[in-house]
Automatic annotation (TrEMBL):
Protein's organism: Uabimicrobium amorphum
Residues in the signal sequence: none
Similarity comment: Belongs to the ATPase gamma chain family.
InterPro entries: ATP_synth_F1_ATPase_gsu (IPR035968), ATP_synth_F1_gsu (IPR000131)
Gene3D superfamilies for this protein: 3.40.1380.10, ATP synthase, gamma subunit, helix hairpin domain (1.10.287.80)
Topology in membrane: Peripheral membrane protein
Quaternary structure note: F-type ATPases have 2 components, CF(1) - the catalytic core - and CF(0) - the membrane proton channel. CF(1) has five subunits: alpha(3), beta(3), gamma(1), delta(1), epsilon(1). CF(0) has three main subunits: a, b and c.
Protein name: ATP synthase gamma chain
GO cellular component: plasma membrane; proton-transporting ATP synthase complex
Domain of life, source organism: Bacteria
Primary role: Produces ATP from ADP in the presence of a proton gradient across the membrane. The gamma chain is believed to be important in regulating ATPase activity and the flow of protons through the CF(0) complex.
Location in or out of the cell: Cell membrane; Membrane
């Protein structure tokens, strides 16, 4: 009897967990759809700006921009690590944190001073372990453009004031619904070589002049790049949580089946035992 009660309680708990994980999977799926639409819209815009900047600066070797000029010596590096505030998203945060630690180790082995901008509660372990300059951001969830813009402004000011020589970002790159991988990329200075193409994007005139256009386009390109990176991180988080919760829901269903099977066996054994006792009592009365 005690075994049956235990099985009933365990099955009830498994059903409650299944309801929770199923709901979380549905919420994550809805957020994933919204975030993926934003990424789909933001990527072409960011890539077009990047190619435009690279194309304009490739036309004349004398052209330069302070946000696209590499430092002769890179000593102070600012590293942005983008994680999430919440868990239940599979190995998303674990992979980002592990990759970020390797990036920090690599930079420090090169003799560079690393300052951190840690985004998300889950990567606070890196924040706590660091003894250098550091900032922790817990309000940048789901890639709010205004807040990302403010962070980009801060990083640009630090770069222009020579407080840092390079800014890098560690995030979860979104490749497809079934593939995401941690990545480290250069945010500042603007990585011209990455977007430089042998083919010109078009024979067009620049008005009023190239320098004035670059002064506007380069910062816009940098803002859009950071926003796109945050969006990719958000999409990767939501799809990871959706897949993890779907897996948890399936596991709960399997557990419910196993517990139901055990319950039926225990109940059958109990009924058989009770029938045996009744039959034994009947035989005793008949003697």
């Amino acid at each position: 009897m005690a075994e049956i009660k235990t099985l009933v309680k365990r099955r009830k708990s498994a059903k409650n967990i299944q309801k929770i994980t199923k709901t979380m999977a549905l919420i994550a799926a809805a957020k994933y759809k919204v975030a993926s639409r934003k990424v789909t819209a933001a990527k072409p815009y960011a890539e077009s700006l990047n190619k435009l900047v690279a194309d304009l600066m490739s036309r004349d070797s004398s052209l330069s921009h302070p946000l696209a000029s590499k430092r002769e010596k890179v000593q102070n590096v600012s590293l942005i690590v983008i994680s999430s505030n919440r868990g239940f998203c599979g190995a998303y945060n674990t992979n980002v944190i592990s990759y970020a630690k390797k990036e920090i180790q690599k930079l420090e082995e090169q003799g560079k001073n690393v300052s951190l901008h840690v985004v998300g509660k889950k990567a606070s372990v890196i924040y706590n372990e660091s003894s250098g300059p550091k900032e922790l951001y817990l309000e940048l969830e789901d890639a709010n453009y205004d807040k990302v813009y403010a962070l980009a402004e801060l990083l640009i000011d630090q770069y222009l004031n020579n407080e840092v020589d390079e800014v890098r970002v560690v995030f979860m790159e979104y490749i497809s619904a079934t593939q995401q991988k941690p990545k480290a990329t250069t945010f500042l200075p603007f990585p011209i070589d990455e977007y430089r193409s042998e083919e010109s994007s078009g024979n067009y005139e620049v008005y009023p002049d190239v320098n004035e256009v670059l002064n506007y386009v380069v910062p816009q390109s940098i803002y859009s790049n950071l926003y796109r990176i945050f969006l990719e991180g958000a999409v990767s988080e939501h799809i990871s949580r959706m897949l993890a919760m779907n897996k948890a829901t399936d596991n709960a269903a399997d557990m419910i089946k196993d517990l139901t099977r055990l319950y039926n066996r225990a109940r059958q054994a109990q009924i058989t035992s009770e029938l045996s006792e009744i039959m034994g009592a009947v035989r005793s009365l008949q003697k």
